[in-house]
Amino acid sequence: MATTKQKVSLTGIKPTGEPHLGNLIGAIQPGLALADEYQTMYFIADYHALTTVRDPKLMKRYTRSVAATWVAAGLDTERTVLYRQSDVPEVFELTWIMACMTPKGLMNRAHAYKAAVDRNREAGSDLDAGVNMGLYNYPVLMAVDILIADADVVPVGNDQAQHVEIAADIAGAFNHVYGDRFRFKIPQLVTPSADAGRTLPGLDGRKMSKSYDNTIPLFVPEKQLRKLVRRIATDSTPVDAPKDPDSAAVFQLFEQFAPSDAVAETRKRLEAGGMGWGELKDQLFEVLNEQLTPLRERYEQLMAPDSELDAMLAAGGAQARKRAEPILAGVRKAIGID
Ligand code: ADP
Ligand code: TRP
Question: Strand 153-155 relative to strand 80-84: parallel, antiparallel, unpaired?
């Protein structure tokens, strides 16, 4: 880990499925770029995933898969602390302490819980049907992930912005009472710039997302990658007719991954007419396959049962604990339980 003076950027990734192209463009690549400016800490939020993932085999697989994806995509464990949330038990002790500082009303307003209640209201069900206390307390655990690492900035997508604001509120509530004995740093939210090019469309043209089941997973075998690319929805404009590249998911994907001269050339050909969507899909497959093959090979090595991945995570966990211990000790002293 670099000097303790360097500012820390921390974010958590929930292991709820196989990582896809949208995750690479929207989260992994921007996250890797931050390592030049910050001491980066990236963790797999496995206990957050427990609110929904109930199959132990899947929990294990997705957790390793997320970690392996980051490393295959270029994360350098010499520079970035990569760890599993569950390897830092201090998190869970502090979660209780901070829950005692958190107004219940703040949790009622947290969007993941509110959305579940709204869905139940619409369906005419009991308002708390299907809501477990893990989902309700989710923002407290997330606040602690951030506060126990003494993080300066938290890069997250818009959907998580409210949770980072809640973390700042909970820290403020603690500081208000105990601030002369222990003060938490108030974390800053960093959301990616509103660059539309950074939201990748999926197979059906909507945002690529596990929840829409329209993703291109990063590490499917070549044959399946080809099949998925063929499945991207296109309109039925004939080959010879001029086309609007920007309205087509297949072009938007091509634009993200192909070199800029190839993108410009393809745009011209589509606009002029004479290039069909099928040909563009073949080009997209070639570009994706060329870029993903080396990552896929590294990913497969890391996913093998006795790979170095486990040692990497263990080392990261030890570093994260070292950072967490004095913070928890300071808090315990401040509250009179030490
Ligand atoms: P999903 O929508 O598939 O469940 P997550 O919500 O787990 O994905 O997203 C993890 C990260 O990947 C977030 O930072 C999110 O902003 C980013 N991300 C997800 N889908 C896309 C997409 N289609 N385009 C750009 N970024 C995305
Ligand atoms: N809640 C985040 C998500 O659903 C994951 C997460 C857990 C997180 N703890 C965090 C993100 C701490 C940033 C900081 O994507």
Answer: unpaired
